[in-house]
Write a structure and sequence with these properties.
The chain is α/β, with parallel strands linked by helices. It is 46% helix and 13% strand. The structure holds magnesium ion.
Length: 236
Amino acid sequence: MRHTLLMFDVDLTLVDAAGAGQVAMLTAGHEVCGEGFTFQGVSFGGRLDPLIFADATVGCDYTEAEGVQRHDAFRSAYIRDFEQLLARNGRSIKPLPGIPELLDTLRIRAQDEGDVMLGLLTGNYAQTAKLKIEAAGLRRDWFTLGCFGDEADSRPGLTELAMQRYAEQTGTPAQPGRVVIIGDTQHDVACAKAHGCTAFAVATGRLSADELRDAGADIVVDDLSDPTPLFDLIGN
Ligand SMILES: [Mg+2]
């Protein structure tokens, strides 16, 4: 494996979407499923969007086939509603501290030295991940690999997919010891540890640095405004 593969989560790791995603999701859910769609008791942080949909529609009592059909309709409506919301109020989405500078350094290094590869590993759908990233002034095409919420049944499944895609793209198998999962929740930590990868946690979300340490993160930082611990890990 020639690269260190750095897989970034999106929400509260790269960007703070200020709840815009949830607003658009709720609008889309009500459009497609009616008032039975509710976020009451549903947890969000670090979870896959299709699983959030499944939890939000528990009271709708859909058959499996209905659930699949409604989920497809929901995803389309959510992407459309989110795009419209951003067109009205896109400036509310901001990158987290240090992220633009860090990604600038890493993408240039990926190009010039070729020893790192950047990717996205997120519970978002591919389209909403792109919308969030670009609304925050970052670019989707800086990330060579992307693994998204509807591409596996669980977050650890996305880690497995990332390693598979790395192998397909480069012709060399991914070594877990050279895969770093960067995220803000216990789910990001768990999906790294499930496959022997390094869990690099940022306390820019709802969990404190101590909670992320307790969840088993290998490295924890308050934010990436000082990326020294990341560069110590991947080499300068
Ligand atoms: Mg997150």
